[in-house]
């Protein structure tokens, strides 16, 4: 088979899927892109056995059709170093030779047999629903950072997709914090749930266009299949039950503290520089309508303190959090002000944006640090 | 030598589930049956290790605690399955329930292995072989899994016996057979004999139990330290360790003695990488996380040091174990030292409600 494609267009498409390829794999075919030519459509596929992703692009002067695996490293390396220009691919499926010629020169590499490339899992017994690309993108952005890396608790190493007939909720937790992001503008087929691993979500985050184009999400008991206009991704689901997260969301945290988000983050960033590096502990000392943020590292005699004004309706309280986790959490909220709902210094604090967005509901939890006295 | 008179002859069963995690996966998923599968870490990245390999996978030379990458090299079409510990725990509880029909003296060693003392069984069956047979049958009928059993008069012999006819085996070593059995046993099968000790023994011309038996207790203690006394007894079929229900794991460790002394930090960290992997694997198998990591270093002059570090919250992963061990090693000033043994151990388990010292703080958990 042969075809002509411009170097930049091919590189751009390959870079969309190259993240799937694992850096140290043992099967050499997993280091390859699968090229499939049919008519003038070229389909490119990458996989690490857990996740498989494909994109399609149009090529010109196509002759014949066929499939071959091309080593990813050398191909992308070559494309990156080539000034934009058309490349003529001439592929012989029998001896697996791949010849790439451009105005500058001629290059030859050897591929691998397409039949050795892993097959995509069959999308059998699936249920499906659609949602706009930008909605899924935002949901991933809002939740992925709080995913656990603790392999002892596999369910928590992914984002939980919890479906209801008129909504979908994305939940992630690392046992210290939890993010729950609900969208009320998605119609799901049934009350159901599954846990998607981190890697395919990172891949989707890098690929999904931030527009309203429609995505199809189909799933069965073992896999998720996401199909967009120009790409498709399938991945194995995490085979573990997500913890009963609703049980840990406090139903009533009576004390509300409202504070300017940007000021709060800046103060936390400065004060936490002086905190103990292992705990990152900062103490919020809430007193009337002011909160004192303080941190210290006894070992080095470091200390930092700042005072911020806020609105607060509860009893005076001293509560400690890990500043790093808290900054990430508040960064993830939007709007000018943030609302903290508290109850006691050893119970989870709820962090919410004050301004709400239509059809979206974001709730995050952070467990405090218990301070020895 | 005869049994010590104050100990009544006991009836001990050692039950070991066959390729436990892998068998549960194959039982629950028809697609995996008859295929080489590995339950454990994925072969990507570092640290993935085989927790259990199915018997089909073992034919390719795949073994527990082997890096998953190596498993994939040995058998490129091996299927990797993520462990579902909740499921194994559940099955393990069912197995213990079956044991408890016959005795309350159960000492679980892990989810898939236990000692039972059936000297006096609840149903007055009287025969330990019959009890072992019934337990195996119940495991097969009720759980659709197979186990291997070893029956004898002490823990050591029972454990070795269960390993003789795997899978689905039942091996009885009668008191009369024990001496001959122990004499024929290769030294590496002895409890606590690792590769290095085995090599050392072979150098001294000690290949089987019979060779060990020729040495006096003094000679054994002199050559192998404290454990020599244990070998002396065990080779005569004496093992008075009781079956202890509710044994709590206080610490868990992995260590290695090297055939030659290590002198560079690179060599040592390469070994620590392996040791950390083994320990992470055992911790994973036992579902344990600890807060204290201890590094043990023995120098060529047999001087030994330990250094430890405690964490605010429990850890168990390979990376933390390795990084901490290397940190501790670097801090312990190893310049110009020859190192013959390195070990990492984990302790301080299961403290869900940690005691918080003044000036310290602990991150609270959402899902304790």
Automatic annotation (TrEMBL), chain A:
It holds the Pfam family DNA_pol3_beta_2. CDD domains: beta_clamp. InterPro entries: DNA_clamp_sf, DNA_polIII_beta, DNA_polIII_beta_C, DNA_polIII_beta_cen, DNA_polIII_beta_N. Its main location: cytoplasm. Keywords: Cytoplasm, DNA replication, DNA-binding, DNA-directed DNA polymerase, Nucleotidyltransferase, Transferase. Confers DNA tethering and processivity to DNA polymerases and other proteins. Acts as a clamp, forming a ring around DNA (a reaction catalyzed by the clamp-loading complex) which diffuses in an ATP-independent manner freely and bidirectionally along dsDNA. Initially characterized for its ability to contact the catalytic subunit of DNA polymerase III (Pol III), a complex, multichain enzyme responsible for most of the replicative synthesis in bacteria; Pol III exhibits 3'-5' exonuclease proofreading activity. Forms a ring-shaped head-to-tail homodimer around DNA. This is Beta sliding clamp.
From TrEMBL, chain B:
GO terms for cellular component: cytosol. It comes from the Bacteria. Keywords: Cytoplasm, DNA damage, DNA repair, DNA replication, DNA-binding, DNA-directed DNA polymerase, Magnesium, Metal-binding, Mutator protein, Nucleotidyltransferase, Transferase. It catalyses: DNA(n) + a 2'-deoxyribonucleoside 5'-triphosphate = DNA(n+1) + diphosphate. Its cofactor is Mg(2+). Belongs to the DNA polymerase type-Y family. This is DNA polymerase IV. It comes from Flavipsychrobacter stenotrophus. The lineage of its organism: Bacteria, Pseudomonadati, Bacteroidota, Chitinophagia, Chitinophagales.
